[in-house]
Amino acid sequence: MNRSTPQVERVELGELACWRVRHAGAELLVAQQGAQVLSYRHDGQPPLIWLSEQAAYGRGQSVRGGVPVCWPWFGDLARNPAAVRDLHPQDVPAPAHGLVRGLDWQLLGIDNTEGRVSLAFACLRPDTDLPGWPVGLELKLTIALDDRLTLDLTSHNRGIHAVTLSQALHSYFAVSDIRQVEVEGLAGSRYRDSLQDWRECSQEGALRFIGETDRLYLDLPPRLSILDRPWQRRITLEASGSRSAVVWNPWIDKARRLSQFDDDAWQGMLCIETANVLDDVRQLAPGQQHKLSVSLATEPL
């Protein structure tokens, strides 16, 4: 196969329509539902994006792993700022991580130019009533593959009122052993620890993992990295349109309670979710748009 000629094919996984892209010695798998990246790896290397061995490919539910899109709020709506909570009717249950993970997105097109292949998706407001959908807000995601994987999530307010949203590209990364990796770039940043009643703390040095971790980091630099010595690689995350990220690993006890998740799967995964959360939420005036982006690559140690 010519490494410079992308190959794109439509495949079915369970109930989900997907696209498999091969380009420049890498393979990418994307589901139409949620425009969710499911997996990404380079030939001869461990996966960069983690996908659960127990993943279920069913309609209306997010697949465990990959990069689900959280929008127009992140996590528990009740933990979001008031301007974000106001999006959703108080008398209607609010699903975790927003409204779009279980919806079919529209494939706008596949582009192949200058050694880069990209898939563009739009999430349109469903014909049926969906409480909490911001009136006039359009959502698009572009997934591009060259020597890196880049995701651009664009919200465009075409309505007549300002809209405030939180969001995240909920990236699951594959690691050799969570107990032997560390995250660089967080030092000096403040964070909210959801496991300590949302107490505000400050990160000292690189982050290492000794137990369940669920933290919302703020005031971040554009580059973070996962240092994985057993696999002799560094995963780099280059973000824009974001000053916040969520770092999560369920560890032993919570892993046993998660769906689509082996009891010991916590050892081989780490979520670093490029985000707009807490005081990094974004208000869009009428006509304004915001792009949340992350670019992923690996470097040998």
Mean pLDDT: 94
What value does the Rg take, in angstroms? 18 Å
Order of strands side by side in the largest beta sheet?
6-7-8-9-23-19-18-13-16
| Shape summary | globular
Total count of helical runs of at least 4 residues: 2
Biggest pleated sheet = 9 strands, antiparallel
Report the strand count: 23
Low-confidence stretches: none
- What is the chain-wise order of helices and strands? EEEEEHEEEEEEEEEEEEEEEHEEE
Which structural class fits the helix and strand makeup?
mainly beta
Q: Classify the beta-strand content into a percent band.
A: 35-45%
Secondary structure: helix percent: under 10%
How far the N terminus sits from the C terminus, by CA atoms, comes to 29 Å
